Structure prediction request, 111 residues.
Amino acid sequence: EIDVDFLGAAANVALAGKDAARAVSLVDQALAQAQRLGKAHALIRLHQTRARALLALDRTADALGSIRAALAGRIEPSKLAAISDEQLLVLYDEAMDQVRAEGSATTSPSL
Prediction:
């Protein structure tokens, strides 16, 4: 079984190489594995990659769905359903800032 982080990185490489369809395929595999293994910390970043790949394919509605899925663990589902797309993007940016801050706090600087 391929590592979740490796699949996520491969999806980002595919996206950087303008192969958004491959990126979606790889990130979908990573998402399924992360959910199966209970790696909740990886889900928001994987959904971010999926949303970017879907936007590259002009699949805006699907991308917004992926963003909603990324936020599902951070916002009560009934409230999430009532949020407009514009508010959703703001909340998503805030959630990503928080994820980045949490990542920075858990990694020690190299000397």
About this structure: The mean pLDDT is 81. Residues 86 and 92 are 10 Å apart (CA to CA).
